[in-house]
Amino acid sequence: SLAVIIVHLEVPFSVLLAAIVLRERPGYQRWLGMLVAFVGIVLIAGQPQVRGQGLPILLTAGGAMTWAIGQLMVKRLHGAVSGLTLIGWIGVFAGPQMLAGSFLIETGQLNALGTATWVGWGTVLYLGIVMTVAGYGIWFTVLSRNPMSQVMPVLLLLPIFTIASSMLLLGERPSWFVLGGGLIVLSGVAIIVFAHKLRFRRVETNR
């Protein structure tokens, strides 16, 4: 549960980096929305166990910061490279590293290939084509064209989709406490997404 909360630090990390490096101004509405959404995530994750978890916490937070830096680098390209082209080059560099890592720390790869079921191969195809090529290709394109403070908080919806998938595919029945946390997350993200419209209406009213 603690990891769920820490991983989502990638969102405020990204917004802070964009404010420092790109001079973006998120506005108090989006900061408020992120705070509300984080409250919902804490409710979904439950009571975290922190004692004795110093190193794992630092490593997870470091991973979130690294991911945020990567998104900032994508943002700075600002349309110079398309999302699909970027995914292709990431694959060129990441593929050999993953193969080397598998060779060094894993065993039984050939046996796994020979005994894989259609579910296993379907999972590989989904992760490789639908999620990586299509999903990240679209994500990078949207990120390059919009403020990070508007795009990144959408990631806070991931626990919502996780809960919905567990209900539909695994038949799980989350508690009302978790469902309430989900509604709070949705409310926070809604504040973020529609913050610019609220500001526009306020300006029009003042005129």
UniProtKB/TrEMBL annotation:
The keyword Membrane applies. It is a multi-pass membrane protein. One of its GO terms (cellular component) is membrane. Keywords: Membrane, Transmembrane, Transmembrane helix. It is found in: Membrane. The chain crosses the membrane at residues 6-22, 31-48, 54-74, 86-105, 117-139, 151-170, 176-195. Residues 57-193 form the EamA domain. This is EamA domain-containing protein. It comes from marine metagenome.
